[in-house]
């Protein structure tokens, strides 16, 4: 009987489960409650630098068993290349792993301009050792006809010390230098939306399903793309004062995940 009422939950990580490296209080209890109720959960993040094992380990350190339940924008980007394609990975280890699991061949742009021939695609994702040499090698591949795939276009990345440049900033540099338009794989776009539906075994517009996140422009618009409800938490980048001007408007608002789950089941 309970199974009939169960819904699918797409849960963002940063700002929902943790803030940088700090677990958000109550998040693990909320996940335990959802698991006990038999809800379908998928953790979906635009952060592409971690491998799925690293993301699962980080969740485990927060008290959450997420084995096999993590979907990253690195996996979404890798879904846009074909097995055996040659891919220049201007990104972190999460993208390298996802490209190799896809059966494509990953190359490192730090090998320099001219080191790579017949590159089919360049994937750009957040990484902190991005530099001019990697930009130049990536741009060369784009000039020679490779397509540009970006894990996500978040302009900035929140840290306790303030905003850092996000992968949208790196993507703009490659798109400008290469003279091409990127295809964006992560939230709120279709590649990651389709992968999430496949993993959850549900469909667009299925009644009651939820996307929970802290950012209307990624999590909220993913909910719009999927025709799910949007649950906004105030434990990340969106403050209570901003709720009135959120676009899209959230269907539910909670101070944090635990408060939001309380509201859903009250
Ligand atoms: Mg977030």
Provide an overview of this structure.
By secondary structure, the protein is of the alpha/beta class. It has 2 domains: 2-46 and 188-265, Rossmann fold (3-Layer(aba) Sandwich); 81-184, HAD superfamily/HAD-like (Rossmann fold, 3-Layer(aba) Sandwich), CATH 3.40.50.1000. Helices cover 35% and strands 21% of the residues. The chain has helices at residues 2-5, 27-36, 52-61, 73-78, 93-101, 132-143, 167-178, 190-200, 216-226, 257-265, and strands at residues 8-11, 18-19, 22-23, 40-45, 70-72, 86-90, 105-107, 121-124, 147-150, 156-159, 162-165, 183-184, 210-213, 229-233, 252-254. The strands form 4 sheets. A 6-stranded parallel sheet has the order 5-4-1-13-14-15, with helices on both faces. A 5-stranded parallel sheet has the order 7-6-8-9-12, with helices on both faces. The protein has a two-stranded antiparallel sheet with strand order 2-3. The longest helix has 12 residues, at 132-143. The relative contact order is 0.16. Bound molecules: magnesium ion (MG). Magnesium ion (MG) is lined by residues 12, 14-15, 213-215, 236.
């Amino acid at each position: 009987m309970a199974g009939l009422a169960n819904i699918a939950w797409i849960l963002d990580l940063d700002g929902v489960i943790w803030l940088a490296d700090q677990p958000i209080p109550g998040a693990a209890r909320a996940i335990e409650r959802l698991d006990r109720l038999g809800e379908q959960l998928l953790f979906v993040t635009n952060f592409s630098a971690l491998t799925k094992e690293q993301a699962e380990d980080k969740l485990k350190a927060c008290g959450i068993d997420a084995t096999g339940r993590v979907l990253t924008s690195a996996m979404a980007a890798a879904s846009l290349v074909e097995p055996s394609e040659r891919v220049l990975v201007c990104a972190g280890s999460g993208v390298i792993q996802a490209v190799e699991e896809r059966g494509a061949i990953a190359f490192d742009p730090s090998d320099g301009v001219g080191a790579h021939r017949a590159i089919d695609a360049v994937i750009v994702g957040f990484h902190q050792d991005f530099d001019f040499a990697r930009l130049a090698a990536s741009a060369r591949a784009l000039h020679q006809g490779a397509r540009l795939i970006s894990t996500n276009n978040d302009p900035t990345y929140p840290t306790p010390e303030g905003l850092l440049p996000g992968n949208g900033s790196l993507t703009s540099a490659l798109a400008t230098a290469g003279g091409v338009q990127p295809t964006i794989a992560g939230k709120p776009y279709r590649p990651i939306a389709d992968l999430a539906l496949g993993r959850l075994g549900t469909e667009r517009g299925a009644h009651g399903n939820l996307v929970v996140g802290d950012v209307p422009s990624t999590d909220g618009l993913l909910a719009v793309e999927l025709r799910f409800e949007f649950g906004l938490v105030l434990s990340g980048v969106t403050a209570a004062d901003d709720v009135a001007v959120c676009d899209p408007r959230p269907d539910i608002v909670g101070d944090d995940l635990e408060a939001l789950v309380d509201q859903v089941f009250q």
